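Today's session is about reading a structure prediction critically. Students often jump straight to the picture, but the first step is always the sequence itself: look for stretches that repeat, for charged clusters, for runs of hydrophobic residues. Only then move on to the predicted structure, which in these notes is written as discrete structure tokens rather than atom positions. Here is the chain we will use throughout the hour.
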Amino acid sequence: MVAAAGEQLPVRLLAVDSNGLLPLRAAEHAYPTAYAFRRFLQKTLPAQLAEPPAADPLARLPLLPPTPLPFAITYRWPAAEPRLLAGAADLLAALPLDHSVPPAPLTGGQAAAQQRLEQFLANKLHDYAEARNSPRPRCGQRPLPLPALRPHRCP
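Below is the predicted structure for this chain, in token form.
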């Protein structure tokens, strides 16, 4: 399916493995049915969850020197100035954007996701079981993108 989608897109398409609970190497072979995989998962997962991932698993590995980007890329897309990245109004105004569109009123990231989760648990969880299937958004379900909440947090 990914290959078929990639053939229809004018850009490069990459599939990213986002298994977060069970490392792929934990399975010794492919399971022919979902039932067989669930049985394996039920036996294997508790040991995997007992030890959270390392805060910085690559800290011991030596870094490879960065590969410079080809000139054609850096010429066409030069690096942004630090002032632009910091949101300097004069530089932002010069960008070829529709400036009549206001910034989105959303804050992203782990802290925002944690805050939204806490608000949901405190204010809306009690109504969720009944309201989740309602066509009217009573339970705080809004068609807005949610900030990312990671499955593990390391101190």
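Discussion point for the tutorial: The CA atoms of residues 22 and 48 lie 7 Å apart.
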